[in-house]
Write a structure and sequence with these properties.
The chain has helices at 14-21, 24-27, 29-32, and strands spanning 2-10, 44-48, 59-66, 69-81, 85-95, 102-110, 116-124. Strand 4 (69-81) and strand 5 form a beta hairpin. The protein is mainly β.
Length: 133
């Protein structure tokens, strides 16, 4: 397992920062909006599978193609502390290319009334095969 963590200070209140990153359409924009460089010109479809779009148990599915290969994976929120922390991980057997199962964590820490520190971390496994998954 490998973990990569990044933190940045943002000139916004913690509630506003958390509200933005709590929305999977904002966190996953690089996979779903238009053709993007991280996706090599491809994009995936995001489906919200749970009744609620956020909070404990919220579940999402991404599917589509990249470089002609099918990608399909689902995620579920495992930890949810409003305005502070959200953790989600892949469920089932993810069909990905450069990583396999993963867990992501976002944490928002208020530094002042108008400044917050956003920390994003991903812990992931390498794929079991070259074709992903």
């Amino acid at each position: 397992m490998t973990t990569v963590t990044e933190a940045v200070d943002i000139q916004e209140p913690a509630e506003r920062v958390f509200g933005y990153v709590d929305d999977m359409r904002n966190v996953g924009w690089h996979m779903t909006d238009r053709s993007s460089m991280p996706m090599l010109g491809s994009r995936l479809k995001l489906e919200i599978l749970s009744e609620q779009p956020t909070g404990p148990g919220a579940t999402y599915r991404y599917s589509g193609k990249m470089m002609g290969l099918s990608l399909d994976f689902s995620e579920s929120v495992t930890t949810y502390l409003p305005n502070r922390e959200k953790v989600w991980r892949t469920i089932g057997t993810p069909r990905l290319l450069i990583i396999d199962a993963y867990e992501m964590r976002i944490a928002v820490e208020p530094l002042s009334a108008t400044t917050s520190r956003l920390t994003i971390a991903i812990t992931y496994e390498l794929p079991r095969s070259r074709s992903g998954g």
